[in-house]
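Researcher: I'd like a structural prediction for the single chain below. Treat it as a standalone chain; there are no partners to consider.
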Amino acid sequence: MPATNTEAPTRGAIADSSLPPMKIFAVPSPTPPARSNRDIARDFADLAFTMESGRELPVMTRFEGPITVRVTGKPPAGLSPDLTRLLYRLRTEAGIDITQTKDKSANITIEAVSRNDIRRNLPQAACFVAPNISSLSQYRSARRTSKTNWALMESREKIAIFLPNDTSPQEVRDCLHEELAQALGPLNDLYRLSDSVFNDDNVHAVLTGFDMTILRAYYDPALANGMSRDQVSARLPSVLARINPRGQNRSPHYAKSTSRDWISAIQTALGPGAGPVVRRNAANQALAIAQREGWNDHRLGFSYFALGRLMQSVDADKAHTYFLYADRAYRQSPNTAPHRAFVATQLAAYAVSAGRGQEAQNLISPHLSVAARHENAVLLSTLMLLRAESLDLLERSTEASQVRLDSLGWARYGFGPDWAVRAKLREIAALNPLNGRY
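Model: Treating it as a single chain, here is the predicted structure.
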């Protein structure tokens, strides 16, 4: 979860292996935003003129002219191909003139450092972005000065992104997508967005069609540095009509804003630093707030999902009930296919542990393509491993072995080193009451 006491927008190596080669998502498959342009205009304004902390920004800032990106530090092997793919998407989908360079004068510097280095600077962050600097050493000396104050900026010229180099390839890529998007555009996250990486529930791993629409609007010639919220809001309707004509005739939804007390409760429940009882109490509070607010969208589903996760070690049956409620809430809300896929892993794990192989199969099958389409290797490999166990329960061992083998390439991308992949294998296998293999 993101830091709550900072203005830095945040997100939260593989050696030779006997496991199958790592798999990657080579071809993106984003879908255009399926919502009204009036809703998108409101989302744009809230994303562009507010920080994650809730602090208001007086003017819009962005880069002007061609944008260059360089990589420093000790980047892991997977960073370069993932960056190449992302820059291509930004050029083709968002229309941003952005290229990679080795020049020290690059507009954006991506420094790959250890997780400990990041945590020493922002303990609750997996990765983060900061303005007007190009290295972590510069950030340490400038972090409490006006130099790194986003609210004082009038334009963007130099920004640094700090990514971990000692975590899984997917974690690095996910950080890369969100932090580069925030270096270029919006600095805020909104829990009311169900189809965006600009949401701290971390359901979406890579930039979505909605995100690319926001970035395309951000760099539209009709907008400029120094514009106020009112000035941008006055021009957005014509901008969105031009770049997203499909959103013109859709009826607006006007989702209610997310209250700060719900955000605080969710961050306590899922963030670092709190004990199990405090976490569960916070999750219960978040659910109560969601119900009080009358939300019938993904935020209600996420409240149930968070509570289910935290109840698993205390009462598995009650946790299962919360997951069922989460799935029901997600079914009633649009753009929640990946959300339901996450719930499916929990429901399927419960079915496998009860020896109900066909039930687990039925739960898993609809979500495999969803996980692949949203480029989430952690989710995809977990679903596949659960499917393998359910096939074993159905005495289809040959098919189970093939599914398990196929899952490992995705697991290497999602979980990283061999020990982490094998740990996940053992964790899923241990659910099977008939499984003595591990």
